[in-house]
Design goal:
The chain is mainly alpha-helical. The protein has 17 helices and 3 strands. It has 3 domains: 44 residues; 64 residues, no CATH class; 260 residues, Receptor-associated Protein. The chain has a 3-stranded antiparallel β-sheet with strand order 2-1-3, with helices on one face. The chain is elongated and about 90 Å long.
Length: 395
C-alpha cells in the first residue's frame, strides 16, 4: 500500500514523503529508520495514485541504465548526467539533478540516494552502501536486477493466469445482465395473456421481468450505486486491504499467500546477506515486506537470533519456515552460505507457487465456464418453459 508521511528531518525542515508499506505501522517504521521524525501518516489518495501510473519512479529501468553505462566505462557522475539528459519526465529529472548535486558536494552515492526515500527504498540504499565498501557497484546493481526479476516473476504469472478467467467472467456477467434486464422484461409482456399453469421458477422469472420494466430507474440507480461502491473499494488502500483479508480467509489461499510472503522474505534476505549486510540488520530491513502476522514472528525471531540462537531454530520457532526451507537453512548454517541458501529457498517456493497457479487455472477455467453456461442456460430455459407448457396443453 502507498502512504503519505509528513516528517521532520532538521529542526525547521518539514517534508512530505510517499512510501510503499504493508500498513501504517510499517511505513512509520521505515521513515524512523531513515532518520526522520514522523509527524503524521495517512494512506495516499487511492484515486490519484491509481490514475497516475507515470508518477512512479522506474527503479529497475534506472538500475539497468546505470549498470550499462558504468560497465561501458563511464564514471558514476557521467552516467547520472547521461541518464538525466535523456529523461523526459520533469519529476524524475529533478531526482537525478538532486543526486548529482549531492555527489558534487562530496556525499557518497548511498547518502545521495537516501535523500530520496520515495524513489529509493531502504533495501536499495543498503545494497549500494554495502557495495561502497568493496567498490563494486556493478555487482550490487546486477544483484538488485536479479532480485527484482525473480520477485516479479510469480506476481506476473498470477496476473497473466487471471486475465482469461476474468474475461470469461465479464462476458458471462454481461450476457446474464442483458437477459435479465432486457430480454426477460419483454418476454414477461408476451406471457401476460397466457392462461394456464406456469412453473413456479418461470413465474418468478416473469415477475422479475415485470418488476424491472416498472421500476427500471430504481434498478439503474441501485446498479450505479453498487458500481460506485466497488470502484471506491478498488481505489482505496483500506478497501483493497479489507477485500484481501476477506479472500485470505479461505484456508488454501491463506497458506499460498503465506508461502508467497516467505519466498519474498527469503529472497530479500538472500540479496542483503550476499551484499554484505549483517544478519540482524537484514532481518530488520525486511520487516516491512511481509504481513502483520508474519512480521510479529520475524521481529521476535530477530530478537532471539540477537541472543545467539541459530537462525534455523528461531525461524522455525516463530512459524517462518516450511519443511524444505528449514532443511536448507540448516545446510546454510553448516556451510556458511546463508545468502545462497536463502535464494535457493525463495526459488523453490516460487516454482511451487507457479505450479499451483497453473494447476488452479486449469481447474478453475472449465469450472467457471460450466457455471456461466448453467446460469445462462437456466435463464433461457425458464423463459421458454411457458411456451413448452402451452404447446403441451394444445396437444
Amino acid at each position: 500500500m502507498r502512504y503519505s508521511l509528513k516528517v521532520l528531518r532538521e529542526p525547521e525542515q518539514i517534508l512530505m514523503l510517499d512510501m510503499d508499506a504493508v500498513d501504517e505501522a510499517a511505513a512509520r517504521t521505515q521513515a524512523i529508520k531513515q532518520g526522520y521524525v514522523v509527524l503524521s501518516v495517512k494512506a495516499a489518495a487511492g484515486f490519484a495514485r491509481s490514475w497516475q501510473p507515470g508518477k512512479k519512479f522506474p527503479l529497475p529501468l534506472f538500475s539497468q541504465q546505470l549498470l550499462a553505462l558504468i560497465s561501458a566505462g563511464l564514471s558514476l557522475v557521467e552516467s547520472l548526467e547521461a541518464i538525466s539528459d535523456k529523461e523526459t519526465s520533469p519529476e524524475h529529472r529533478k531526482v537525478f539533478i538532486g543526486l548529482l548535486a549531492s555527489l558534487r558536494q562530496g556525499l557518497t552515492f548511498s547518502a545521495a540516494l537516501e535523500m530520496f526515500p520515495a524513489q529509493f527504498p531502504p533495501l536499495y540504499v543498503a545494497m549500494v552502501r554495502a557495495s561502497e565498501r568493496t567498490g563494486d557497484l556493478s555487482e550490487a546493481l546486477n544483484r538488485y536486477l536479479a532480485y527484482w526479476e525473480q520477485s516479479d516473476k510469480v506476481r506476473s504469472k498470477i496476473i497473466g493466469a487471471s486475465i482469461y478467467p476474468a474475461v470469461i467472467a465479464l462476458v458471462g456477467a454481461i450476457v446474464s445482465f442483458f437477459l435479465m434486464f432486457y430480454v426477460v422484461p419483454r418476454f414477461s409482456r408476451i406471457y401476460d395473456d397466457i392462461r394456464g399453469e406456469v412453473p413456479l421458477l418461470s413465474r418468478l422469472l416473469l415477475e422479475w421481468g415485470k418488476f424491472v420494466e416498472s421500476y427500471w430507474y430504481v434498478m439503474l440507480l441501485a446498479g450505479c450505486g453498487v458500481l460506485a461502491l466497488l470502484f471506491f473499494i478498488a481505489v482505496r488502500a483500506e478497501g483493497r486491504a479489507w477485500l484481501t483479508r476477506i479472500i485470505l480467509r479461505i484456508p488454501e489461499l491463506h497458506e499460498r499467500a503465506r508461502i508467497y510472503q516467505l519466498a519474498r522474505l527469503y529472497r530479500t534476505l538472500g540479496m542483503l546477506l550476499r551484499g554484505g549486510i549483517p544478519v540482524l540488520q537484514a532481518l530488520d530491513m525486511s520487516t516491512g515486506l511481509i504481513g502483520v502476522e508474519l512480521r510479529t514472528g520475524l521481529q521476535a525471531a530477530s530478537a532471539r537470533i540477537g541472543e545467539g540462537l541459530l537462525m534455523s531454530r528461531a525461524m522455525e520457532e516463530y512459524g517462518l519456515t516450511t519443511p524444505v526451507s528449514l532443511r536448507l537453512l540448516r545446510v546454510g548454517e553448516r556451510t556458511g552460505q546463508m545468502g545462497d541458501m536463502m535464494e535457493h529457498i525463495a526459488a523453490f517456493h516460487d516454482e511451487e507457487l507457479a505450479r499451483w497457479v497453473e494447476w488452479f487455472t486449469r481447474l478453475f477455467e472449465p469450472a467457471l465456464m460450466a457455471l456461466i453456461g448453467v446460469v445462462i442456460g437456466g435463464i433461457v430455459i425458464l423463459m421458454y418453459m411457458p411456451i413448452f407448457e402451452l404447446a403441451g396443453s394444445i396437444q
